[in-house]
Amino acid sequence: MSLQIIHYPHPTLRHVSKPLKRVDAELKQMVARMFELMYEHEGVGLAANQVDLPYRLFVANPEGDPNNADAEFVFINPVIKKGTGQHEKEEGCLSIPGVYAPVVRKEKIAVQAYTLEGEEISGELDGLFARIVQHEIDHLDGRLFIDRLTPTQLADISEALEEFEIDFDSKRGVGELPSDELIVARLADLERLRT
Ligand code: ZN
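YS: structure for the whole thing
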């Protein structure tokens, strides 16, 4: 399966992922490919929805440095147990490249998840890492950072979003993107395999 990053307004970005129940060799390959794509596009996090997969997992490297494997994390079935404080900072997204806006997030979070090896991990995060985890878990719930903007902030980027919508429609028009029905059917098949 060749994975690519999908862009807003692709419907898979609105898919709410079910918990992952089975990790197999093919899924591990998909995760490795997600890291490659994340680095290629100079990101610090990438959720499964963003590569058109219905799985509740994301990859992250808060250092953004491919040579620093110690900072690479895979979060499977992540859950935020607690969040405190508020912090506003500019965010972007590999599925809406070139668009940035300030987003309010929890300053500190307690998160629990599983690794690819099935080990439970939990801990408290703050700073950029806490922001990445909240942004990526939003993806798994079918939510984008633009959904968290005020109407004024949204108005500021509406033209850029419209360009993505026009691009999406024209790609569909020439058959480069499948219909909503085919996308839903494919996601359901992939879910049956592992969730
Ligand atoms: Zn994103």
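YS: worth flagging: The domain at 11-194 is CATH 3.90.45.10 (Peptide Deformylase).
IM: good catch. Also The beta strands are 45-47, 57-60, 73-84, 87-91, 101-105, 108-114, 120-126.
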